Amino acid sequence: MGKFCTSCGTALNEGAKFCAKCGANAFQNNESTQVSTGTPEAAKSEQEIPETMNSTKKKPPINRALDDAPQQSPMGAGKFIITYIRQSLTVLKNPKQMLPTALLGLVWLVLALLGSFGINPLPVRILSFLTFAQGGMFGGVFGAVGGILGKVAVAAFLNAAIVPLFQKKAPFSGIGGGIKGFFSGLAVKSLTAVAPLLGGVGASLLLYAFMNSTQSLQNSMVGIIAFIMLLQGIGKQGGFLWGLAFSAANSLSKGRTPSYISVTRCISGMTLGFALGVALSAVRLRWCGWLGVLLLIAALIFVIVSKGKKEVAAA
């Protein structure tokens, strides 16, 4: 096969080392041939890189945590809450989305009036249980604040159940995946994995005791709702509690990217903690407060021990 000058395109004789017309080195032709031969593979490799990156992005966060690639850090807890409140206020632009909350508020008002008149038959008690109507009515200021927080959770749960129906979507999607993620998050294989799990259980027990100050079975619906919402959050890798956990972890880690696995394990612990809180209410044991504190202390001890072992191993 004949050779051509890479500079001017003139045909070259077999064995010629230089172009007779422009004087360019004839061996550049071989080099360019090698380059052009390798170019399709290089181009193919470059085309495959975005596909690999896209396939990584398609993985759920708990799978992406297994990769070594750096991930984008979430915002801090304070900024996340402010952003969430701003987004929640957009519901005011759509009256239909406010309808479930308005109806729930009306039910609370009617149940409160019936209770004030001493009207408390079984249907009223059942409706009061399902709607967390007595939340915040006991326990003084502390109980009132916790009850308000619990009622916000109940209203959010009701919106999550009804609003998707207006959008022709299935409510509570991700529960099945959340159950699988919940049990996988409970799997503990090292000391490092124990701390977030115990911390999640302890934090949720304290939060349950805060929202249900009497820790009674009558007001335990808030714990059941939190349990379901956390399962959905684990399955969808999103939601308010999921985002709050990640933003809190980001604040505690001083800007470092929190581990998806650790935060998922913490949320699995919180899910377990709310279930435990409801179970304690069912057997009339008001242990949630001090048990939550003990578990948080235990989680802190495991953090210190695992940190010490890492420092010894690195020395």
From TrEMBL:
Keywords associated with the record: Membrane, Transmembrane, Transmembrane helix
UniProt xrefs under InterPro entries: Zinc_ribbon_dom
Membrane-crossing segments per the record: 98-119, 139-166, 186-210, 222-248, 260-283, 289-306
Name assigned to this protein: Zinc-ribbon domain-containing protein
Domain Zinc-ribbon: 4-24
Organism of provenance: Blautia producta
Keyword Nucleotidyltransferase recorded: no
Domain of life where this protein originates: Bacteria
Chain spans, region Disordered: 31-72
A Pfam family matched in the record: Zn_Ribbon_1
